[in-house]
Amino acid sequence: MLMISAFQITIFLALLLILVVFALVLAAKQKSNMRFLIWGAFILFVPFVGALACIINFYSNKNDIKTI
């Protein structure tokens, strides 16, 4: 039988909160306010998937070569 203690739930929620806050900070570094609002809504409505998608998107776009 699967037994989940209150301590495990607290740790999981704390890690989820840290992940969401980190993703919102990265989304705030975007130049466009509209992109931040879209990412913020996505992160808040689908916390785990939205936060991971935002972090992956931020770091994958960070390494792009910018041309003039």
From TrEMBL:
Membrane-spanning ranges: 37-59
Organism: Polaribacter aestuariivivens
Keyword terms: Membrane, Transmembrane, Transmembrane helix
Protein name according to UniProt: Cardiolipin synthase N-terminal domain-containing protein
